[in-house]
Amino acid sequence: MSFPWARHYEPKNPVMQWVDSRLPLPRFVYNAIGAGYPVPRNLNYFWNFGVLAGLALVVQIVTGIVLAMHFHSSAAGAFESINGTIMRDVNAGWFLRFAHANGASMFLLVIYIHIFRGLYYGSYKAPREMVWLIGVVIFLLVMATAFMGYVLPWGQMSFWGAQVITGFFSAIPVVGEWIRVWLLGGYAPDDAALNRFFSLHYLLPFVIAGAVILHIWALHIPGSGNPTGVEVKGEQDTVPFHPYYTAKDGFGVGIFMILFSTLIFFYPDLLGHPDNYIPANPLSTPAHIVPEWYFWPFYAILRAFTADFIIPAKLWGVVAMFGSIILLFFLPWLDKSPVRSANFRPGYRIAFWILVLDVLVLGYCGGSAATPAVVIVSQICAAYYFAHFLIVVPIISRLERPKPLPNSITEAVLGDHGGSRMTETALRA
Amino acid sequence: MATLEDGVSPNQTVVPPGDVIEDARRRDYLKIAAVSVAGVGAGVAVLPLINSMNPSADVLALSTTELDLSAIEPGMAIKASFRKQPLFVRNLTPAEIAEADKVPVSSLRDPQTLEDRTKEGKTNWLITLGVCTHLGCVPLGAGEGENRGPFGGYFCPCHGSAYDTAGRIRQGPAPTNLQVPDYAFTSDTVVVVG
Amino acid sequence: MLPLFTRSIKFIIGAGFIFVLLLALIGTVTTLIKEPAQPTAEEEFHKHPKELDLASNGPLGKFDNAQLQRGFLVYEKVCASCHSLNLVSFRDLQQLGYNEAEVKKIAKDWPIKQPVQDPKAGTWGERDNLASDRFPKVYYPGTGSPPDLSLIAKARHDGAAYVHSLLTGYQNQPAELLKKFPTAKTPDGSYYNPYFANLNIAMPPPLTSENQVTYSDGTRATVDQMAKDVSAFLVWTAEPTLQTRHRAGVAVVLFLLFATALAYGAYLTVWRGVKH
Lengths: 429, 194, 276
Known about the structure:
heterotrimer, A: mainly alpha, Cytochrome Bc1 Complex, Chain C, 17 helices, C: mainly alpha, Cytochrome Bc1 Complex, Chain D, domain 2, two-stranded antiparallel ribbon, about 45% helix, membrane (chain B), iron-sulfur (chain B), transmembrane (chain B), quinol-cytochrome-c reductase activity (chain B)
């Protein structure tokens, strides 16, 4: 950490002194999420979601490890082992299963809020581009893991979800069909596909955990951003992570847990689909194939492309769907505005809220049956989605006249009534 | 710098922001309580995780085994399965019973009579687990033509433990006799184990 | 020229996507105008399930064991000959209040037996069910295989209400429907039921007359009552741990509310005197 006023780790306990002098792991933790990490004092509740995402990852790994002890990874036994053995016979098995299934939803919900926080407050801008890039990688890994996890119960939606998603790859010219068969290890999802999905579903969370460490490391080089987007100028702008933000995160974790538990214990099937309680049947397709809610916006973009133009419509859909996430990688260079926070960017702020609405509507469309009306709305919203990142934001970032920024975080916190003058004096002193 | 903090009363100076000088010890209790309650919560949350590794209801449902003994002739033995472990059921001949009774109990490593190990009036039915008490191998002797060892009972091929016709350890490293599970005759020929 | 191209590449890509979407949009609108979707009999005559009031409803719902036992009786006497319950074990019936001996007897007397394979000959025979067995699979020789009912209350929207409405929803095909959709006549061997997704169900009406099963607790066995009871039973088979889940949930949420209030207090304490 680069702030010169960051506290240094001085263990009082002789055991910790002994450990720290041989392996400075306690020091590392202290500087990462302890009192040795100075954080802007003005973070709002949207800054809780990074820690919550980490918590959700831990919950998924822990419940997943125990569930894997009871799961049968085979087309003949997967459905029965989850809906029969785990849900009925394993001690607290129903709790573990519902916690894991709803934990995925909570994880993605937290990630989405975390991403939109980043979009609103310009967290992707210099000097934090690397934090953002690693974040997009984590997002892709989480989506892959969630998709493969949804296949494991081997219900109707699991099976047809696997069929449809791997079908995307057959849109690739020439080698597409070969790639699809290679991914599945067969011509349709079966034991081979289920087993490799299980293997990867168990592996990827640990890859994600590694990427999370890089994400936090990259964050600690410039330090955390803040709602004003003004960089930290001095010691008065920060507080140590512990106890200030550990306390605040503790409260956030409580709220998260209340919502999570309400889902697990009272509405465990709210976010699932009834068809996944029907065992996979390769000979009968469900009336409406829908992915889990967190994929709906992307599914709507996929279905919006219905016209052939140079390449087939199907390939356009797949390119656009992956493109809609890939273009997030370029965002730091698409938005050239030096001002980070949308609080001081009137034009960008409007575009941001349109994007939020746009993604919500896309989500609604992706979850609905593809009637003409739904498709038309998806097409309009998908157009805005691409326009937002590739046209609107680059143009706004050039034309917009941002509002005056506060001189410092402290000034912003204390308000404008004489505070700013005094801050300057204090800084000079 | 502390003077910058408007709305802060003079006895709560901030030096630097972050180092709040506590004016009431009572405040600490709240923090301690919050951390303790969170710790209790985390502890309780771990319980279902651990409990899920205990035998599940379908495993427990197989914890008793019902056997029909009518087809076992004297001198014969069968291997059955009890809680997914081998179970030896042997119909002893009078000669085998006499041989078992002949042994002075005090000379045994694990002193038990044949009568201790069978049900009253059913001395000929020797029901034991087929698990060597040394390291858990399955002894020979229950199947037809298998080596019954030097004492005519069971013989464990792993480390040479030999059991007599009452399933008692007589030679080799095993510390105790073959274990007799709980069982009861529900009729002359039907026994429920477990 | 090249720098200009690099600078405007984003606009080109963006415009590309928008152009293709515009083409697609024109296509969709044209189709919509030229060939507006024809209404179908399913869309117009399909009905959503009637509301069903069960003890297990809602976030705090409990099981009514008397009703579950009646429902099991209906399942046993009416449904079980065609529909299996393959994820449920006979031993689970003890949760409905049957004792061990009763469960053993139910298992032993169950008309469909457990298949067993002779390990030497490889041939299949059968044996009586044990309490530890799952309900055996039903192999139905007729057309199509009736679905397993273990999870039916979770595998349909509004599960229990759907089962109840379906069982009581058999009727003659409305004349109005035939007038509007002359080709939508219920085919032979199917039965008109507006609660079924495509209106025509292959299952003959299973509950047809009062007292089709005899309740021992004195409840009047009307068709509606039997349908209700078996729906309640199928909620139980779909999730026998539902009541446990609700009870645990109340304790967990109360604990979390308390813990979170404390955490909020600790948060205020820590930040006291620090403006942010």
